[in-house]
Specification:
- Chain B: This is Lipoprotein.
- The complex is a heterodimer of chains A (172) and B (126).
- In chain A, strands 1, 2, 3, 4, 5, 7, 8 and 9 form an 8-stranded mixed beta sheet that branches. A 3-stranded mixed beta sheet of chain A has the order 6-11-10, with no helix packed on it.
- Helices cover 12% and strands 57% of the residues of chain A.
- By secondary structure, chain A is mainly β.
- The termini of chain A are far apart.
- Chain A has one domain.
- Chain B has 126 residues and is of the alpha+beta class.
- Helix content of chain B is 30%, strand content 40%.
- In chain B, strands 1-2 form a two-stranded antiparallel ribbon. A two-stranded antiparallel ribbon of chain B has the order 3-4.
- In chain B, a hairpin with a 5-residue loop joins strand 1 and strand 2.
- Classes of the chains: A mainly beta (172), B alpha+beta (126).
């Protein structure tokens, strides 16, 4: 029992020295959001213990993580696709604004670099990683159609757009 | 963590995964250095030690004749020195991907846009 207490104290001490956050809110982690016409980006970066409770990035990381999550901010009709919308990234309209998770369940793209111990939990996958991982994922609900464009500029800023197309006209 | 050291608990946790089919299309590109253990129901079980790099897709069940896995991905990264790294990623899935893939001009223009943007941004690094 004393060994358990000692280990717990060590973990607590290391956590205090580094960081501890849930969904990017906490100590030792920075969380930034950027929004544009079509999409919202959330960037989380830091060192310590990060618990992410939200799909599709549900995970626990003990170590360092830098993660970008791009979600559409609205769904549009499939036939409204235009070439311009594919080539031109809309300007970021606001930063540190409210990040909407509403459509993340239907469509999301994320990139993350993690070092340390990581665990992923989802209804279809349990994964344990010890080491370093660089990952890029596109996660789309069945029967939806999507277009993502993500831009990463030297770690200073990231912008992107995500278009979620429906097979039918979206309800007004 | 401690509960997972008991075989019964681990089996119980893994059983929670049984019977679940992926309701999402997944397109994954990743590189791992270290120990990687994964158990899932989508055919992406894994056990690796060392360096691995993967590109794979998980495709949900679909009805006959329906689009199951159309995907277009164009990705480019460029670096300059130690501090400048720029990355451009384009992905399309489903009918949007099929429409783009069938249009050679759009596909070529998209590829050039992604590559040129990443290189231009890198050249502009101070």
């Amino acid at each position: 029992m004393p060994g358990t207490v000692q280990r717990g104290l060590w973990v607590a001490l290391l956590t205090m020295l580094s960081g501890c956050a849930i969904n990017g809110y906490g100590v030792g982690f920075s969380r930034q959001t950027h929004t544009s016409d079509y999409g919202s980006i959330e960037r989380i970066e830091g060192f310590g213990v990060l618990l992410d409770t939200r799909s599709p990035t549900r995970s626990l990381v003990i170590g360092h993580i830098e993660r970008f999550l791009l979600c559409p901010s609205k769904a549009v009709a499939l036939d409204s696709i235009s070439t311009d919308s594919l080539f031109n990234l809309p300007a970021v309209q606001s930063t540190d604004s409210e990040f909407s998770l509403a459509l993340c369940q239907d469509a999301a793209a994320f990139q993350r670099a993690r070092s340390g111990l990581s665990m992923d939990f989802s209804p279809t996958l349990f994964r344990l990683l010890i080491g370093h991982q660089q990952q890029s994922v596109v996660h789309i609900q069945k029967d939806t159609h999507s277009v993502f464009r993500l831009q990463y500029l030297s770690g200073e800023a990231a912008q992107g757009q995500a278009l979620l197309f429906l097979t039918e006209e979206p309800s007004p | 963590m401690k509960s997972f050291t008991r075989p019964g608990s681990l089996v119980g946790a893994l059983l929670l995964l049984c019977g679940c089919q992926s309701s999402h299309y997944l397109y994954v590109q990743e590189t791992v250095v270290g120990v990687d253990v994964g158990v899932g129901t989508s055919g992406n079980n894994r056990l690796s030690v060392g360096y691995t790099t993967d590109t794979f897709a998980v495709i949900p069940e679909k009805g006959d004749g329906l689009d199951a896995a159309s995907s277009v991905a164009i990705i480019d990264g460029a670096i300059k020195g130690l501090d400048c790294f720029n990355y451009e990623q384009f992905n399309a899935t489903g009918n949007a991907a099929a429409a783009i893939a069938k249009n050679g001009e759009v596909l070529t223009s998209l590829r050039e846009t992604i590559y040129d943007t990443a290189r231009d941004n890198t050249n502009n690094c101070q």
